[in-house]
Structure formats: C-alpha cells, structure tokens
Amino acid sequence: MMEKYFKNFLFFYKAIGNRLFVALTLNVLVGILDGLGLAMFLPLLQMVSDNGGEIEGKSAVIEGMFSSMGLELNLFSVLLFMVSIFAVKGLIKFLSFSFQVIILQSFIRTVRIDMFDKFHVLNYKYFTQSDFGRLQNSVTAEVSRVGQACRSYLKTMEALVLVMTYLVLAFITNPQFSLLVTVVAGLTNFLYKFINRKTKGQSRILVKRNDFFQGMVLEYLNNFKYLKVSGKIQVFGERLTKGIKQVEETNKRIGILNGIALTIREPILIFVLSAVMLVQVEVLGGSLGLILLSIVFFYRALQVVLVMQNQYNVFLSVEGSLRNLEQIQREFDDHHQDTAGRTFTGLRSFIRLDGIRFGFGDRIVLNNIDLIIPENKTMAFVGPSGSGKTTLINLIAGLLSPDSGQILYDHKPIYEYDISSLQSRIGYITQEAVVFSDTLFNNISLWDKMTDENLSRYERVVQDAAMDEFVETDSAENQVSGLNLSGGQRQRVSIARELFKEPDILIMDEATSSLDSATEAVIQRRINEFSGKKTILIVAHRLSTVKKADIVVYLNAGNIEAQGTYEELMDTVPKFQKMVELQNL
Ligand SMILES: Nc1ncnc2c1ncn2[C@@H]1O[C@H](COP(=O)(O)OP(=O)(O)OP(=O)(O)O)[C@@H](O)[C@H]1O
C-alpha cells in the first residue's frame, strides 16, 4: 500500500526532480500566509465581543507580533495587515501556479521525446510481433493521459500539503475540537477507499479498450479500400461502433465514480463539524468563539480536500495509463536493438553468414544458414513462398538479429557496427513501396537540402527509375502521397530514392513486381550497370530478373538447398528448373 504511494511519488520525482519540493514548499507558504491572514479574525472577534476570555489568550500572541513590528493593534492596522498578507499570498499562489505549468510542460515533453527515442532503437522483431493499436495508443493518447496523471498528481500533492497546513493551524487554535473532527472525518475514508479501488480498476480496463480501439482504427484506415470494395465496411463499422461504446461505457463509469466521490465529501464534513460542535459546546461546555476560527480553518481545509479529492480521482482514472507507460517503457528497454560504435565505411571484401538460425516464436524460419556474399557481386534468392527469403534479407540488412550464428561484414560481427551507419550504406527496396505525403524531391532525397548538386542528382535518378512518364519537368516541388500514385509509380519513387542514396549494397525484394515488363526492363538495364560496382541482393519470383545474377541461391523451408549460376541451378536443381519452366522462360 505505502509502497504503491511511494512508487508513484518516485516516478514523478524521477521525472521532475527537486522542483517537486519547490512546488510543494510554495504551497505550504500559501497555507501559512492564508492562516496568518485568517488569524486576524481573532483580534477582530475580540473587538466585537466582550466575553472573549479564551480568545484573549491567543490574541495576545498577535498583539505581541504587532508590537514587535511597531504597530498598534487596532481595526485599521489589523485590516491593513490582513490585506497585505492576502496580497502576498496571491503573488505566491501565482508563482506556484506558473511554476507548475512549467514543470508539467517539461514533464510531458520529456516523456514524449523519451518514448520516441526508445521507439527509434526498438528491435524490429519485437515491433512486427507487437499489437500496433497498443503501440500507437501508447505513443500518442497514452502520453497525453500520463501528462494528465502528472498534473492531477501534482495538484493532489499540493492540496495535501495545504490541508496539512490548515489542520496544523486548526490544532493550534483548538486542539480538542480539531482532534474530534479529524478522527470522525478520518473514519469516512473507508468509503473513499472503496470508491478509489473501483476507479482504478476501471482505469486499467480503459487502457486495454483504448488499445483495442486504436488497433481497429489503424486497420480500418489501412484496409479502407478493401473494406469498401468488398462491401464489408459496414460490418467493420459495427466492430468500430462496439469499440467506441465499450470505451465510452468505461469513461461513463469512471465519471460517475468521480461524481460520487466529489459530491458526498461536503455534506459529510458539514455533518461531522456540526455534530462535533454540538458535542463540544453542549456536552463538553466549550466556547463557540474559539471554535469559530478552527471552523474557518476546517472549512478552508474542506475546500482544499475537495480539490484534492477531485484531483486524486482524476489521477486514479488515468493511473492505468501510468502503469501502462511504465510497462511499455520496460518492454521498449528490453527490446532495444544492440548496436555498437564502429562506423561502417563501406564493404571491402564480403558479407558472411555463419550457422544462422532464426525463428518467430516457435516457428523456425531459417535453419543453419551458411553463406558468403562477395563484395560487388549480384546474388539472387529464389524459392517457394514462405521459404524465408525476405527474412534472410532482413537479417543481412540488420533489421533482425539471428537467434544463433553470426553475420559478419568484412570479418567483423554486424553488432560491432553502429547499425545506422551500416544501414545508411544499404539501399532497400521492397514490394511495399514507401511514399511520404510530401514533395517529390523530399520523397526521393529524404529531406536533403535542395542544392544544385542534389537537384541534378534528383533529375538523374528520376530518369533512371523510368519516372519521366508521370513526372513533368520542374517536378521537384510536386506534392505526392501514397494515394495519388499508382502501384507501379509508388514503386518507382521507392527505386529512385534508393538510387539517390547511392548505396554500396542494394537490396531489392520484389522491387519491380508492380511494374509492366517494359518499365521493368528500363530499370533493370540501369541496375545492370551497377553490376560489378555494387553488392546487389535480389529477391524475385519473376525469374527473368535473376538470370544475370552472379550467384543464385535456392531456398526451401529455411534451408539453402543449392547455389550457383542460373545455368548451374537449371542443370542441377529440378525444383528450380520446374519453376523456370512454369514461367515459360
Ligand atoms: N513478423 C512475423 N511473425 C511471425 N512469422 C513471420 C513474420 N514474418 C514472416 N513470418 C514467417 O516466416 C516465414 C518466412 O517468411 P518470409 O517473408 O521470409 O518468406 P519469403 O520466402 O520471403 O516469402 P514470399 O516469397 O511469399 O515473400 C513465413 O512462414 C512467414 O509466415
């Protein structure tokens, strides 16, 4: 229990640092100034009542305070003091408020940036196996909710120190009365424990339901076209509606619980105050006069308790998001890609795969792969669908790490390199063409500067990728997006981008599968010019594209069954021969 309170405190303390204590101290100051201002009621009360014997004792302290400041205790000086105190209190409250805004902004900024920093180095295998709805929800909506958690937590803490300050003041004024009120009011906390537990439970359910809903939204957007053309958009729409209803149902429950917690506090406390006042005056024969100032403090405390209650409920309703964030941060840390500092400056001799094994979960995808890819040679991977070609390429490109075995770039294991320096030397074109909603120039240069040199490089690769047919002159500033280009056009944008990059190693995984034969031939001719100058890895089902490869590797069920030239494979591997015959080559 205490451990949990401490855990939350530690979480925010780690993110906010000692500024948290500054914020809290400012609040104690606000409370003390408020108390001091309110204490001026004592001399005022004394001025209006003649039988304030007990008040006199306490007000003597104030009188002493005034005389030490060289002031006389009269209506004017008391009121002047009160006005000044409240003015200073206003100023400090403003400081505290502004300080809180600053803390919060920096907290949310840090959490967001930190989240994406962790995301950038996330291992790709974990990414492909993740629930995308959860990932998306975590880096967007959940971070905002964690910001809300921080805000409400801070406000709760601040309210708590204020309540404490008022209670101390009430105790100083009238210990017996204050003790009675505190004990009775404390008993009502059991009720709140119950409500809080319920709220927390709902908050966790809410995160799960939001993850699920976000996942559905992603699928809806990604598959919009298919859902429409298949006439199933309404069916999917019903699932979405169900998701929305579930999220809102949970929100409603949390809202109602908050409402209960918020509204019952005041009537209960007023009841307690009245009951204790009756007992104190009627049974214990106390004086109403002195009770009054304690009541003012209690009432102040009550107002703050209400704020605290409100904020704590808000906190509980988003606490699920906080736990989710901690969990996902832990997962991100556990699944980050290991990468070392050696800068890759280009391939000098070969890439070597030694006894590579790789699986997704229990499914073994690659089984003991040994392979040497000599520098500046073209190697093609062929084999049935699902045989592991793309997975093998992804391992070579450093997207995936083998379960066992080693990948060496020029005698050094791949993990000894700074992976981004290696990947910046790899051109990777896949069947899923990547197009960003931006200008054509930015799409191809990936936001490089628009210098004369880059522009002429851009124009060259536009031609090399056979884009001239859909790209007019002065096209660099044209806006494109995945939606306003045809499949083949998107693929050519992807090819142009990798040519612009001028990589050492060019990987083409079904890179020309969406193109007509004529366009493919143009690009193929351009790629052929690289042969002997770059290391090229090709995955292709259309076997005509691999005829010119130096080495063809035949993969089957995660094993290399044969490798050699196209002709050698035709002679020695009947399965390959059959594949070629089926394509009428
Ligand atoms: N993210 C993943 N999670 C689980 N299994 C996966 C994942 N990606 C691929 N696989 C499995 O790994 C195996 C090899 O897939 P891979 O994409 O490497 O085959 P491929 O030879 O390139 O196939 P194709 O010619 O159809 O593109 C397949 O059985 C596939 O189901």
UniProtKB/TrEMBL annotation:
Q: Which residues form the ABC transmembrane type-1 domain?
A: 21-317
Q: Which UniProt keywords apply?
A: ATP-binding, Membrane, Nucleotide-binding, Transmembrane, Transmembrane helix
Q: Membrane topology type, per the record?
A: Multi-pass membrane protein
Which Pfam family would be a valid example here? Answer: ABC_tran
Q: Where in the cell is it found?
A: Cell membrane
A GO molecular function assigned to this protein is:
ABC-type transporter activity
> PROSITE patterns attached here?
ABC_TM1F, ABC_TRANSPORTER_1, ABC_TRANSPORTER_2
Task: Please indicate if the UniProt record lists Membrane as a keyword.
Answer: yes
Q: Which domain of life is it from?
A: Bacteria
Chief place where the protein resides? membrane
Indicate the segments forming the ABC transporter domain, all copies.
Answer: 351-582
One GO cellular component, as annotated: plasma membrane
- Give the transmembrane ranges: 20-42, 73-92, 153-171, 177-195, 283-302
**What is the protein name given in its UniProt record?**
ABC transporter ATP-binding protein
Give the organism, scientific name: Aureitalea marina
| High-level lineage | Bacteria, Pseudomonadati, Bacteroidota, Flavobacteriia, Flavobacteriales
